[in-house]
Amino acid sequence: MKPDEYPSSTPLGTRPSADPTISRLTEIFGPPSKNIGLNCGPVENEALQSLVVKDKIGPFTATMLKPALTSLQSIFSEIQKTDPDLLKNVTNLGTICVRFGRGSSDLSTHAFGTAIDLRFDESAPSSASLADGTAKQAKVVLFFERAGWQWGGPSDYMHFQAGLPLIEKWIAAGELTSK
C-alpha cells in the first residue's frame, strides 16, 4: 500500500505527540492507576473501573469502557452487514492496558479503555509496520472513521482509538462521567 492510498484521515502517527483524547480523559477521571509504567497494569481508578465492561465482539471478547465497547460492536455489526469477509480472520491483539505509549512518557489511550489493536488478516505481521500489511486493514479503517474512531496509521496500523469528538459525544450524553 502506498502512502497516497491510505484512508482519508490523518493517521495518529503523524500527529503531535500530545494526544488531546488522553488529556480530556485525564481531566475527567484523573490517572487510570497510581503506578504507571511501560508494561500493562490494572485500572485502579474507581470511577474509570466502574465503566469497564467485557463482552463478545464477533469472534473475540474485549474489555473496554462501556461506550467504546458499544461503539465497537456497532462497527463490527456494520462490517458484518456490508463486507463480512473483512471479519473472517480478525484478531484482537489488545484493549485496556494501563501503561505509557510505546517509546513515550505519555499515557496510551489503551490505559483508559478507549483503544484496541486489531489485525484483520492472519497472514499480516503482528509488528507495528503496515509495509507488509493488507488491503483488508485499510478497508476496515473507513468503517472506524465513520464511527468517530481514529486509526494509528501505517506506523501503528493495528491501532484504533475513539476520537476526541466521539469522547465528547459520550460525555455530553452522560456516558462518561467521573461520578
Radius of gyration: 15 Å
Order of helices and strands: HHEEHEEHEEH
Shape: globular
The third-level CATH topology is: Muramoyl-pentapeptide Carboxypeptidase, domain 2
How is the largest sheet built, in terms of strand order?
3-4-6-5
CATH architecture: 2-Layer Sandwich
Instruction: List low-pLDDT spans.
Output: 1-8
CATH level 1 name: Alpha Beta
What is the helix content?
25-40%
Mean of the pLDDT scores?
83
Tally of strands: 6
Give the structural class: alpha+beta
% residues in beta strands: 15-25%
Q: What profile does the largest beta sheet have?
A: 4 strands, antiparallel
Work out the count of structural domains.
Answer: 1
Between the first and last Cα atoms, what is the distance in angstroms? 45 Å
Treating each run of at least 4 consecutive H or I residues as one helix, how many helices?
5
What does this structure look like?
It is a single chain. The protein has 179 residues and is an alpha+beta fold. The protein has a single domain, classed as Muramoyl-pentapeptide Carboxypeptidase, domain 2 (2-Layer Sandwich), CATH 3.30.1380. 29% of the residues lie in helices and 16% in strands. It is built from five helices and six strands, in the order ααββαββαββα. The strands form two sheets. A four-stranded antiparallel sheet has the order 3-4-6-5. It is globular and about 40 Å long. The N terminus is likely disordered.
